[in-house]
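User: Sequence in, structure out. Go.
Assistant: Echoing your sequence, followed by the structure tokens.
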Amino acid sequence: MFSRILVANRGEIACRVFATAKRMGIPTVAIHSDVDAEALHVKMADTAVGIGGKTAAESYLDIDKVIDACRQSGADAVHPGYGFLSENAEFSERLAKEGITFIGPSAHAILCMGDKITSKKLSAEAGVNTVPGFMGIIDDADQCVRISSDIGYPVMIKASAGGGGKGMRIAWNDDEAREGFERSRSEAKSSFGDDRIFVEKFITQPRHIEIQVMADSHGNCIYLGERECSIQRRNQKVVEEAPSPFLDEATRRAMGEQAVALARAVEYVSAGTVEFIVDSQKQFYFLEMNTRLQVEHPVTELITGVDLVEQMIRVAAGEKLSMAQDDVKLTGWAIESRLYAEDPKRNFLPSIGRLARYRPPQTLTTAEHVVRNDTGVEEGGEISMYYDPMIAKLCTWSTTREAAIDDMSRALGQFDLAGVGNNLQFLSSIMKHPRFRTGDLSTAFIDEEYPDGFHDTDPPAETMALFAVAAAVIEHASSRSPAINRDSAVLCGKPASASRDVVVIIGQSQTRLQVTNSDDGLVLQDETGKATTASTDWTAGQTIATIRIDGREHDFKLWPRVAALGLEHGGYLVKAQVLSPRKAELAALMPIKAAADLSKFLLCPMPGLVTTLMVKEGDPVEPGQPLAIVEAMKMENVLQAEKSGVVSRIPVAAGDSLMVDDIIMEFET
């Protein structure tokens, strides 16, 4: 076994590998950029080596620096995690020359499968179903348009190297093919140092289902079931689960056997994932093979009981797999939600900043429930603009899919995070969505169910009633508190009496409740005479209130609002006021302040780097015209004009770093 393992990565995956290595009794080494000097993965390792730089190219992608860190620390093995150098054949070969074991597949397998064009050719030869497309390198945008037209729209324009949704665009016409080629090539160059692009047919309404494989150097290769990864945004996975609610046993076996055949064809050793797209008739087509550990590997671990990282380490050390195909049993259901630093209400634009609060739900392992949180951050840590915006991977397991989803919904509701924009509310909305709960999925799910993006909407009547009760209970509890924390945004009322009337105002909805003390908490009766019982241990200052309503517990997050209470639950966020009947009458007479008109400005929607200005002062612009490109967290974002006008002022230049709402351009309209 290895004497010391260096993880050539950062964040949650580095912490994940360290956890298994420590359990196996193997000392660990972390590397870190200047930005990550105080990061959690650095604190978790036995030894840490600084490699300098800020960007990935200056640090985690610098092979010389990583190998030098191995020399300094005495590491005799390297686990690459995912991303960065995990699928870099040169890195694997360089380590071999240094006598350092790469905990992953051979350079040959990486080259064959890491290149999407080569992998498709090899998969066809191995008898694996493949998607129609042009399996050659595309030289320029004109050629991309010609090929796309020949294949037939829609098409997927993809980087040959890399993954994670980077360098991928769907095109439905010639203009989108031209633009998609330029953006994909630029992102691929920035993220992977490889700007080769190819095109394949885009299958509409597909499901994204992948097979986990594991192979050793003794000729053994198995598959460990599948993962459904159809909930995606911009080709990046958001929610994953195992097994898939769509597959039957025959299709699962056929996909697994093809995945194993492909792995054997390239003499694959280690953990790997063969990704397929599956149509409504359960016809499946090879998409790509990821020659590394996948981000979503925990859901496979939860349904199989197999520690994939441990198996990777043991296989790399020359051991045989500890199981055969017949030993693999799929038990229960697992869900993974990816928590990102992004703002869903601003078109999911990246967010950066310091984690003022980071309090995940309590981890749990019982015979019927598991709550697991893989993370690489801690309270007070910083989310920077230089790396991927994923904060954590929250996972739940239970005996059935419905129970696993319910557990996930509860865990998301108990996840207390502040300081950066995040997608917790959006994830909660997905868990409550009827289509998701029935398993009616496709990679177009988010586009179809959230066509205008994710925004606050009025809750259904049943949920609105819960909000009204919760607001009244919290206001009642706060009125009994001797000291009110203003951060909780609860207005201090008069000491609670035995019974009183309140009006809960949420948007255009008003609910009048009679609130009465009882031995078990409160009884809240509405104007129809319907009575609800409620109780809570919440006290002023706490940011999450767990309230038992008619015998069932519900979690509500509290957010500061001016003269009101912000409540979040089940994917909905509302502003609630709890007033006396007389004050409610007067509140209805208050004027509403109009929002400021910012339409004459192009504002930076996220913290990022201005890479390109596409117009100059004095230029006329039309709706939809590209104006500037801002790069943030390895993704390029093209900013377009919303209406006609003339550019009057551009106070920034290419290369400038901007914060949210910094002015990029001003227009005369």
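User: And one key feature?
Assistant: The CA atoms of residues 223 and 256 lie 6 Å apart.
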